[in-house]
From TrEMBL, chains A, B:
Domain of life: Bacteria
Domain ABM: 16-85
Name listed for the protein in its UniProt record: Antibiotic biosynthesis monooxygenase family protein
Organism listed in the record: Actinokineospora soli
Tagged with keyword tRNA processing: no
PANTHER family: ABM DOMAIN-CONTAINING PROTEIN, BLL5343 PROTEIN
């Protein structure tokens, strides 16, 4: 799924991170399409800053938002709510969702130091 | 690398998350061994709560700690400091490190609802 930049380009903290760690069930029919659609939708949400995703066995998605209001608005998006319900019913054996306030950040890019 | 449970079992918030997102350079010699050693070491640090890791292209490691003091102690571990320096020199083309305070968390396990 395409989250944009593999390492999200985010502003100076503070901002928020939604950390979603998951194990898929054997029944992933429709999962890839739904995930792509969710990234497409969330990109249009006010206050969305970017996201990162990797899966090998466990999947980790970290989505960044300007504030709690932006997270709440995304949570309430009807299509997102529908997909979350399908996730619990079909795609996930387990997940943990954590809402965290990013307080400090530090980046490194090799091109900057060569 | 073995982070223990694929989805970290963490206490009730608040606690802290260190979100480390990275792109590897072509020269990964020694990287796997060093990463394994870091997970082995961090497990012995007071206030360490668990970690999650996935890589496909981009790598995401989220390590959880009780408080900022626990993060600072891990940062100051001499072997960890040495490995970080080698990471910037050899293994990483880019990374972003974010320190975040987990404020809310919600989990789902299929076995609980069947």
């Amino acid at each position: 799924m395409d989250t944009g930049d593999p390492i999200a380009v985010t502003p100076e903290p503070p901002y928020y991170a939604v950390i979603f760690t998951s194990l898929l069930s054997p029944d992933t029919e429709g999962y890839g399409e739904a995930a792509d659609r969710m990234f497409e939708l969330v990109k249009g949400m006010p206050g969305y800053l970017g996201a990162e995703h990797a899966r090998d066995g466990v999947g980790i998605t970290v989505a960044y938002f300007r504030d709690e209001e932006a997270i709440a608005a995304w949570r309430e998006h009807p299509e997102h709510a529908e997909v979350r319900a399908r996730g619990r019913k079909q795609w996930y054996d387990a997940f943990e969702l954590r809402i965290a306030r990013v307080e400090r950040a530090y980046g490194f890019r090799r091109s900057e130091v060569d």
